[in-house]
Amino acid sequence: MNLSEIGYRRVVVKLGTSVLTSGSRQLDKAHMVELARQMASLMKSGVEVVLCTSGAIAAGREHLGYPSLPDTVANKQLLAAVGQGQLILAWSQLFSIYGLHVGQMLLTRADLHDRERYLNARDSLNALLANGIIPIINENDAVATNEIKVGDNDNLSARAALLCDADLLILLTDQKGLFDADPRANPDAKLIKQVVNIDDSLRRLAGGAVSGLGTGGMATKLQAADIARRAGIEVVIASGHRPRVIQDAVCKEAVGTHFTALENPLESRKQWILAGPATKGKLVLDSGAIVAVTQKGRSLLSKGIVSVSGQFERGATLQLVDEVGREYARGMSRYSAKDLLAIAGRHSEEIDSILGYDYGAAVVHRNDMVVL
Ligand SMILES: Nc1ncnc2c1ncn2[C@@H]1O[C@H](COP(=O)(O)OP(=O)(O)O)[C@@H](O)[C@H]1O
Ligand SMILES: N[C@@H](CCC(=O)OP(=O)(O)O)C(=O)O
């Protein structure tokens, strides 16, 4: 099957501890290599893959010989700190069999909420993918306190899917998908193949049960599915041990539980820009830039900026106005006010020599802009 005809460009695959350990106390490398093979084959067919992997705590326990440590946050951080190195080493070795490099990204909630860090994380992800390198994401457990923790990798993978503008999120676990009751407690539970609406009755089915080493159970997978499908991303929950599971999910075969996406991503991003944080400043555009932005669907370049007002950092939402103050568009700035004061009216190619760095030619990228 020709994957480009299927239409998925970018896929986030989340692997739970239950999949990586196959229910044992150690990383099941024989199984991990098979998952790496499937992901590598997608990359070679032109579908970009972002891997969100759990397993650091399990790998840390294994590496230290299963120490009997009290169940405290600090000890989990200790295990994650030891295990993350082992985990990324394993993935790096397994993907190298297929000629692929990996890049590690350890994130926390704080990185995804702060607009500047969000943009930086997004740029790193895109840079890795643009160079054919698989981004491997996990929560930065060793530094994350409860306030800044996402807390579970299901939610983290959904946020990563939004971050990289994926069109499919695959959550792999130790069950065939979402059942109408916890299959561990109810052997007669039935697989739900299609979900079009996530409501309280569905959330009740997800219960609170968690596999031996997992975090959150189906409840966090449903939260993740809801976040992703509201942003226009399709979601599949399936068994990480089903043969060809990743490839089949990408080929739209009936695999596990499929969640229909609600809206298209652009609409949802527009809503975020309009309903998100208050605007922090204004950019006055010249007439050419106004035509480019409002009629030609272009990004805003520094050349078309006449003046800058407000104090803001990279990532702030700004109003794009004309010389009499009429607002034409709103969008997220890739440069701070200080940077923009220096580069306004200048050609994009000069940015690096003026600032000593550059975040790309677009000051407000098309994808981060709403034309009013
Ligand atoms: N309705 C349900 N359908 C499927 N699994 C459920 C359901 N309710 C609870 N679960 C539990 O969720 C567990 C998977 O979550 P978790 O242990 O966090 O795995 P992972 O490590 O893959 O994230 C399953 O082993 C299962 O017992
Ligand atoms: N960040 C932790 C995993 C947290 C988590 O959500 O685990 P899981 O439910 O197995 O996906 C780790 O690497 O051990």
Automatic annotation (TrEMBL):
ATP binds at K14, T173, D174, T215, G216, G217, M218, A219, T220, K221. It is found in: Cytoplasm. Residues 281-364 form the PUA domain. Pfam families: AA_kinase, PUA. The keyword Acetylation does not apply. It comes from the Bacteria. This is Glutamate 5-kinase. The gene is proB_1.
